[in-house]
From TrEMBL:
Full protein name: Winged helix-turn-helix transcriptional regulator
Entry keyword Transcription regulation: yes
Species name: Arthrobacter silviterrae
UniProt keyword Manganese, yes or no: no
Keywords carried by this UniProt record: DNA-binding, Transcription, Transcription regulation
HTH marR-type domain sequence ranges: 19-151
PROSITE patterns: HTH_MARR_1 (PS01117), HTH_MARR_2 (PS50995)
Entry-linked InterPro entries: HTH-type_Bedaq_tolerance (IPR052526), HTH_MarR-typ (IPR000835), Tscrpt_reg_MarR-type_CS (IPR023187), WH-like_DNA-bd_sf (IPR036388), WH_DNA-bd_sf (IPR036390)
Pfam families: MarR (PF01047)
Residues annotated as transmembrane: none
PANTHER family: CONSERVED PROTEIN, HTH-TYPE TRANSCRIPTIONAL REGULATOR RV0880
Length: 164
């Protein structure tokens, strides 16, 4: 059986309002998810910047600080400071990179992995509970939108012209 060809790109959203509405919903979801798990993870114990770094390192172990900063679109010194805090908290480990004594590979520690998993589980419980309160047709729409939203996130993550 032949592999399905990817669909050509669609027309852009017709109205700026449609793009803004999507941005608004994403921002609201992110804010409410971030704040809703704070009873389990106070800001001081796990700032959002650290959560995002833990997520990235879980997906891409052995990045260096510069690579991590580029992927997160943050200044290298900002990431370096965050990594220093995370190393002191036993969330991330640094190991020398073979062939380059100055560069280091970054990895989650067992503690970092457990904390990230707990944070993800708390969010999963919150989202599952909210989804269960929606009508089944709305749940289905959201589930079917996930692959497209994931592709959109990947495009935005790699689109340097978005910063211009």
């Amino acid at each position: 059986m032949a592999a399905a060809l990817p669909e050509p790109p669609g027309e852009p959203l017709q109205a700026v309002g449609d793009a803004w509405s999507l941005t608004d919903v994403i921002t609201r979801l992110r804010r409410v998810l971030r704040s809703s798990v704070r009873h389990e993870f106070p800001w001081e114990s796990l700032p959002m910047a650290q959560v995002e770094i833990l997520q990235r390192l879980a997906d891409e172990p052995d990045l260096g600080v510069s690579e991590l900063a580029a992927r997160q679109r943050l200044a290298t010194n900002t990431v370096s400071n965050l990594i220093q805090q995370m190393v002191l908290s036993d969330l991330v480990s640094r190991t020398p990179r073979p062939g380059d004594r100055r560069a280091q590979n970054l990895r989650l520690t067992g503690t970092g992995t457990q904390l990230l998993q707990s944070w993800q589980n708390a969010n999963e419980r919150r989202v599952a509970n909210a989804l269960s309160q929606l009508p089944r047709n709305r749940q289905t729409l959201i589930e079917e939108a996930i692959p497209a939203l994931s592709e959109l996130a990947a495009l935005l993550e790699t689109d340097d012209s978005a910063d211009a």
